[in-house]
Amino acid sequence: MTEADRRLVDRFLDMMAAESGASRNTINAYRNDLAAAAQSLPSLAEASTDTLGSLGGKWSDLAASTVARRAAALRRFYAFLVDEGERADDPSSALPKPKLERPLPKVLDTNQVQAMFASVEARAASGHPLALRNLAILELLYGSGLRATELVSLTRGGVRSGQPFLILKGKGAKERLVPISSRASDAVDRWRDTVAASSLWLFPSGKSHLSRVRLYQIVREIAADAGIPPDKISPHVLRHAFATHLLAGGADLRVLQSLLGHADIATTQIYTHVDTARLIELVNSRHPLADRHR
C-alpha cells in the first residue's frame, strides 16, 4: 500500500469510527481487508474499473466469503473517496460479486437445552460458586440471547435485581433492550453474592473479566455433563436456540430482530428456514384448502 493510500485509509477508518460508531474489531477488519486488497492493486485509491475487474481472477483461490468481504470493504472505501471529493467516479461496480449461500445455524432442540439446565441446576443446588456461575451464564445465553462478548463484559451492577430488562451496547455500539426472566435474575443474584463487591465485572477473571475462549470452554463442559457432544455447542449455538425456539413459540420476526440486535431483518430471517416442521404444520392446518382434505 502506498503512503498516499495509507493516509486515505486512515481518514476512511476515522470517519467510520466517528460517524458510524464502528467498533475497534470492525475497524481492524476493514483495515486488514483493504491492506489485503491493496496487494493486488498498483494503487488502492486510483484503481480503475478495469483494474478492479481483474480482481476476480486474482482472488479465484479465495473463499467466496473472503472475496465478498474484501469487495464490500472496497465499495465502502470508494464511496467515501467520492463523498470526500478524492475521486470523481466510483469504480466499485466492477468488483467481483460472489454468490454466497448462508449456512443454516446449528440448533439445539428443547430436550437438549432442558438436559443442560437439569445438569447445571443439580450442581448449583450445592451452592458451589462455580456451579452458580455456570447457571447464571446458561440462563443469560439461552434465556436472553446474549452474544458472548456482551455476556462476558457485563458489569457487576449491569443486571439489577427485580429489573426485567437489560440495556446492552452491542455491535456498532448500538443499544438495545433485552428482557431478563425472573429465573435469570434469580440465578444472577445468587452468583453475584459470591463475587467480590470490589469487582467491576459480573463474571471476573484475574484483573479483567472472563474471556470469550474461557466462556466457550465452560459451555462445552456444561454440554458434556448433560451428555451432549461438545462439538455441537458454543455460546452462539445457545443464542441460535434462543431465537429458533422463540420463533417456534410464535414470536414475531420483527420482535426477534430487536431482541437479537440485528441491523437488517434479512439476518433474522435465516431462522425462518430452521423450523420447517412448524411451517408445514401451519400450512396444513391454516391454509384455506386444508378443510377440503378433512
Largest sheet: 2 strands, antiparallel
Q: What do we call the CATH topology of the largest domain?
A: hpI Integrase, Chain A
Pairing-aware structural class of the strands and helices?
Answer: mainly alpha
Q: Which percent range fits the helix content?
A: 40-55%
Number of domains: 2
Uncertain ranges: none
Tell me the fraction of residues in β-strands, as a range.
under 5%
| Cα-to-Cα separation, first versus last residue | 70 Å
CATH class label of the largest domain: Mainly Alpha
How confident overall, as mean pLDDT? 82
Radius of gyration: 23 Å
CATH architecture of the largest domain: Orthogonal Bundle
Order of helices and strands: HHHHHHHHEEHEEHHHHH
CATH homologous superfamily heading of the largest domain: Intergrase catalytic core
Q: Which word captures the global form?
A: elongated
How many strands in all?
4
Report the total helices.
14
Neighbour order of strands in the largest sheet? 1-2
